Amino acid sequence: MAETLKMNRPLISAEAITKSYFRGEHKVPVLQGAGLTAHRGEFISVIGQSGSGKSTLLHVMGLLDSPDVGEVILDGNRIDNLNQAARDQLRNHVFGFIFQFYHLLPELSLLENVMTPLMIRHSILGYWRHRKEIREAAMSMIQQVGLEHRIKHRPSELSGGEMQRGAIARALVGRPEILLADEPTGNLDASTGGGIMDLLKSLNENQQLTIVMVTHDESIAAQAHRTVRLAQGRIQTIAREDAA
Ligand code: ADP
Ligand code: MG
Fold first, then answer.
1. Element (H, E) at 23
2. CATH entry, 1-94+178-185+210-244, from 2.60.120.290, 1.10.10.10, 1.10.645.10, 3.40.50.300
3. More exposed terminus of the chain, fewer Cβ within 10 Å: N or C?
4. Which ligand is the nearest neighbour of the Cα of 20?
């Protein structure tokens, strides 16, 4: 019984999240009791209109932002109320993020960009001691996304699809359990976006990577296992037929 419960325990859940922003004196409610649960190996898409709070929900789940009310639970433990150092640690080890505009560092090569999450785990001395394995881990991730011929390029010398592949390599180099993807194909043409979706699906299937992906594109959303809709500040589960 205990074993069954443990196996059914969600990997990550956002529970009854409320979050408002202030525009001057004016309080703008964004999330009003939103809840979302992902089990290990699930690929969930969140759809909703622009401004419905999709990014806000993803940021709260990944500890980039705090809820006003509600809890984020990782593998049975509340994590949203941890101190800054513990939250930073979880963000670096448990979550990988990708964004619509890639957010690669423009001054660094692709290889350096992908090495960054592993470098910041170490002191400068620790980095020098581990630099060979950090470089190898980054190279291996870059190979997985098919960019080994681009390691010395800066982001400005890469195409949109290549930048997003690079961002995926950076997000995954630290072996996170959960990938949070915010409109990952939103800035790409359909065929390049399809390539990114194929890569995400293969990472999900082959490595049991848990993915929560935000998109406003219903045909992209339909490629996940399950789609939910964010509207009026809450998550509504929708039938697959409605999502397609
Ligand atoms: P979506 O990703 O679905 O387009 P967002 O989560 O980005 O929606 O934003 C939801 C609402 O919250 C929008 O009205 C937006 O203007 C507002 N908002 C988001 N982030 C902030 C912020 N840091 N400060 C003030 N308002 C914000
Ligand atoms: Mg958004």
1. strand 12-23
2. 3.40.50.300
3. N
4. 1
Query: Letter for the amino acid at 183?
Result: E
Structure tokens at 15: 């529970």
pLDDT of the residue at 116: 96
Residue holding tokens 């980054």?
138
How close is the Cα of 239 to the center of ligand 1, in Å? Answer: 26
Supply angle C-alpha 125, 129, 134, rounded to 5: 110
Report how far ligand 2's centroid is from the alpha carbon of 182 (Å): 7
Alpha carbons 50 and 216: distance in angstroms, whole number: 7
DSSP string, 198-211: HHHHHHHHHH--EE
Amino acid letter at 165?
R
Q: Is 51 in the pocket of ligand 1 (CB under 6 A)?
A: yes
Residue 6 has pLDDT above 70, yes or no: no
Residue 240 has pLDDT above 80, yes or no: no
Distance 134 CA to ligand 2 centre (A): 32
**What's the one-letter identity of residue 175?**
R
Q: Is the CB of 21 under 6 A from ligand 1?
A: yes
Closest listed residue to residue 87, CA positions, set 105, 61, 119: 61
